[in-house]
Amino acid sequence: MIFCKKCGFEVTPGTQQCPKCHEKITLSGADIISIKDEIARAKSIKNYELVYHYTEALADYGYLPAQREWACLLESGELDEINLDKAMGYFYLAALKNDPYSAYRYSRLIGRESESVSVFWLEFSALLGCKEAYADMARLLDGQGRATDATYYYTLAARTDNVSAIVTLARRYYEGIGAVKSDAYAKWYMDKLTIPPINAIRLAYRLRTVTAKEPEENTFEGYLPLVRLLCERAEAMGFTTAQRRLTEILAEEGDARALARLGVLYAEGIGGETRPDEAIACLNKAAAEGVSEAYETLGMLYLSGFLVQRNAELALKYFEMAAKGGYKTAYETMADIYYRGEHVERDVEYAATLYEKAAVSGSASAQEKLEKITKMRTSLYKDALLKEKDDPREAFALLNRSVSMGHIPAYQRLARAYLLGLGTKENARLAVALLKRAVELGDDGAVYPLGVCYLRGIGVKQSYKQARVLLEAAYKQGIEIAGEHIAAMLESKRIKLSERYYSSGIRLLYSQKAEAAMQAFEIADKFGNAKATYTLGCFFEPPEHFQKR
Q1: Do residues 33 and 11 touch, judged by C-beta distance below 8 A?
Q2: Which of 55, 270, 499, 544 lies in the 20 to 30 Å Cα band around 457?
Q3: Are 283 and 307 in contact (CB under 8 A)?
Q4: Residue 164 burial (C-beta neighbours within 10 Å; 0-12, 13-18, 19+)
Q5: CB 279 within 8 A of CB 256
Q6: Are residues 403 and 424 in contact, defined by beta-carbon separation less than 8 angstroms?
Q7: Burial class (CB in 10 A: 0-12, 13-18, 19+), 177
Q8: Is 159 helix (H, G, I), strand (E, B) or coil?
Q9: pLDDT greater than 90 at residue 203
Q10: How far apart (Å, rounded) are the C-alpha atoms in residues 255 and 250?
């Protein structure tokens, strides 16, 4: 007898719900053994009605062997009249638990209703090693024009002493269809038959003098492609347990992408129970192989704290690796995190950059989010310009918000506010930082003011070299005043160099190094130093004139 696991009430086998507490009845290992013993006793006394009842009860409780056996009884009509529809239902339940034989029988019965479903379960059962499926699988492959792969399955069927498969193989070797042409191989298969069937007598006669030789091992060239195709079809059809088993096969064969997918299936409990440790192990192995999906999944796990300890920093690193690997959703996921400030400091500007990358890769939702940010930050910037004169503090606050969202024109405007102290305290260093960022973002209008800052040392260490680069760029943009600054800078540099070389020449002259001094004066002269020109002239005056002076 069976007892309710909640209240202990005794129920008869087959009862699905406890009459007392209405709890669903489940079986323990001991319950299953007890019912199986009852079936054995019923068989021994030939009480087939009881066998029928107990087997159905076990099947309805979800016990796989009973589901398969019960379906076989319904299909054969051994204990009662044949019921193919009901048999198909129980075969299906067992097939969903990856039982090879049940998958095969279901494929044969469902063929009356759906050819595509029938083909899927036939191929699945053959891949899982159902010997009854081999011959049908071979015929299916033959029909698809895959003669070599068909020969492989005919070989498997022949090993189960399938006479039809043995004869077919003998003919294929004799005629060279899907296999190497060899009378010796054909003879080897014919010798497996004690008495050849009528349709093989002529072939047996032709091979009567041939010496038999065992064929070399056949291979299934389309094995992995078929597993991958079936896995995709299983997912599309909603056969999650089959999808999981096929993914496991691919992972065992060294498919890194399948390993990543298996990690997801284990983590989410798709097609079976959740396996946290195995999920993380699979994902880590796939990540080590550079699989972007593994990076993205690990990122989600570390971000949510599901199965692992939450670590936002590590999650973002995984998302970035996934994005670089071409995983399209990773950029948008990162953007969402930065936009909302989940577990990280909010950074709308960076979020906008990431949304743009996601949009370029084809994400419509990322494009919508980017347009929303663009509209908002542009509106803030326009409002700031309207308020600059009457309410500089409010304008400054609006510019700050616009900059925080990455609106490029707002950087230069905010820098101006810091330089002039409009709505805030003067802060030249921060102004320069904003101008630099604006230039990095492609704002040509920020090049000139940044060049002036370097020229005059405003908020940054003075650098004529950097100033010249920036001002020349501004001049090429059509800013005439930048050219004037460059000319003034060059003139200042000329004067400083002339003075430097003139002073160097005087020091050398006093050190009685006339030749070196003369070279220094000549350089200073080229820079337009009048004193150097006069000194050089003195070198060429007659000595007596020089002494008079």
Answers
A1: no
A2: 499
A3: no
A4: middle
A5: no
A6: no
A7: middle
A8: coil
A9: yes
A10: 6
pLDDT in tens, 290-300: 999 999 999 99
| pLDDT digits 0-9 by tens, 37-91 | 888 888 888 887 888 888 888 888 889 999 999 899 999 987 778 999 999 999 9
**534 vs 531: CA distance, rounded Å:** 5
Instruction: Report the pLDDT averaged over residues 222-250.
Output: 95
479 vs 466: CA distance, rounded Å:
17
User: What is the spatial distance between Cα 252 and Cα 497, in angstroms, rounded to a whole number?
Assistant: 75
CB within 8 Å of 136: residues ≥ 6 apart: 104, 108, 122, 126
Query: In 10 A of CB 58, how many CB atoms?
Result: 25
Q: Where in the chain is the domain with CATH 1.25.40.10?
A: 391-488
Model pLDDT, residue 1: 65
Tens digit of pLDDT for each residue in 452-461?
Answer: 999 889 999 9
Characterize the bridge pairing of strands 10-11 and 2-3. antiparallel
299 in Cβ contact with 311 (< 8 Å): no
Q: Which CATH class is domain 391-488?
A: mainly alpha
Residue 469 contacts by C-beta under 8 Å, 6 or more apart in sequence? 451
